[in-house]
Amino acid sequence: MPTTDRLQTGQLVRLISGGPLMTVGADRADGDDRHVWCEWFAGDEHKIEEFPRGAIRPTPADDVLNEVARQIWERAQETMQWVQRCDAAVTLAYKHTGDAPHHMAWLVDQMVRALLGNEIAYKAFVGRFAQEHPGEEWDPGVAP
Known about the structure:
Largest sheet: 5 strands, antiparallel
Number of domains: 2
Structural class: alpha+beta
Distance between the termini: 69 Å
Radius of gyration: 25 Å
Shape: elongated
Strand order of the largest sheet: 4-3-2-1-5
Number of helices: 3
């Protein structure tokens, strides 16, 4: 397709040099220059940028399907990890529900750790707890 062909709003494109799948927001002419406004997501961040028309190519349907399949696979993996963390938290709750009251703080702490999935997220949670509850400390409890 010659670079003078107009791209349609909503059409899927990619930079000729590669990169993420993008959606055409607008294809505009400025004198002899053509510019294409594209939108895409980098993780959860919405990006919008203008590119010279010659740097953009329409994306073949196979590329689109492969990209969509990859994104679905990644989301499925994230969902499975979340399900596993929820299962670990519920298992802890079920296993320790009858424990003495002084062990309940430990149970809640362990459930939070299971849901957050890693020590970095846990430390961030404890830090946020301290900011939002001045004068209180997060109680990791006593293991049964």
